[in-house]
Specification:
Distance between the termini: 49 Å
Largest sheet: none
Number of strands: 0
Helix content: over 70%
Structural class: mainly alpha
Radius of gyration: 21 Å
Number of helices: 14
Shape: globular
Amino acid sequence: MMPPDAMPKTPERFLTLMAVAATIAFATWQTLLNNFAIEHAAFTGAEIGILQSLREVPGFLAFTAVFLLLILLEQTLALLALATLAVGVAITGMLPTTYGLYATTVLMSIGFHYYETLQSSLTLQWLPKQHTAVFMGRVIAAKAAASLSTFATIWLLFELFEVAYHWIYLLAGSISCTLVFYLWRAFPRFTQPAVQHRKLLLRRRYWLYYALTFMSGARRQIFIVFAGFLMVEKFHYSVAAISLLFLANQALNLLLAPRLGRLVQRLGERRALMLEYSGLIAVFSGYALANSAETAAVLYVIDNLFFVMAIAMKTYFQKIADPQDIAATAGVSFTINHIAAVVIPVLFGLIWLQSPATVFLCGAFMAAISLLLSFNIPLRPAPGNEALVGRFEAPPASST
């Protein structure tokens, strides 16, 4: 095995190591959150609800990243965002109070959402279009490997050595910070293929991508908020069972994500998204009808795999976008994706009280709308050929 300094300093390796650093920090924060909040900050359902809403606010404001690009290079800002995420996680255990946990969550979330926006933007700029889907699949596999390693380490530290929460948070944040420092020092500043717009952009010809992004955000909230809740409330899954289910998801991502990336490349965006949305209609309908814990677990795992195929939405945008639009549109699209995150958990939580099945049938309906939208994607998307119906003339690159 080559020592780290002997490895090629390519954009692909830079993006992969950034993803690993982010995963180590965020997976630790996510894994420990509920137990730490209850045991050390005396959280009830009210406080955890407020915390989760606060966590989503930076995602809704992700478009503001474009203003920071007026003074910072995109690669530099990505590393600063990643460092902010790492520091937020590192100090979480040191502030075991309600407002302390709110503060560290917001700090962590600012770093996380800015990082996610910039990681997506840099990937679409640096990678050639014919290789992006395969590379994204490999990154998902690398993140799965980092998650599995993180979960195993947390289990060992808790079960065998009885390490306190604040030391584990500090360890994870420090490892991520060390990786950020390595990326800063060891990698060159890669050139941008095109100078990016440093202002907000909403182009009419990207309307289909915006619509797909909004529906993806709405649908994903149902999975994140309610699918796991169904396992516990209806099928009485224990913490250990939920953990095993999550480990199974990550293990399958590790094995299958690169293959799914190649599948997206082979099928093309139109067919890949049609396959994803057709599958999600069946999965959400299955959640509504499931009467056994085993069936629900299978649906949960399949659901997770279908979301891997959402990389087709990013490669679709890469193919239709003016190169100068990618950074600005990445921030705007992240905000569009998070609009639903502000509304759906509360609104559908009220629906859940009356009928959990209705929540998942609404998810199936959202997937059906996405399927209809995907029929409008051309087989060969390109600037000026963004949609089969509702196509707008591609403006000059300098236009706003």
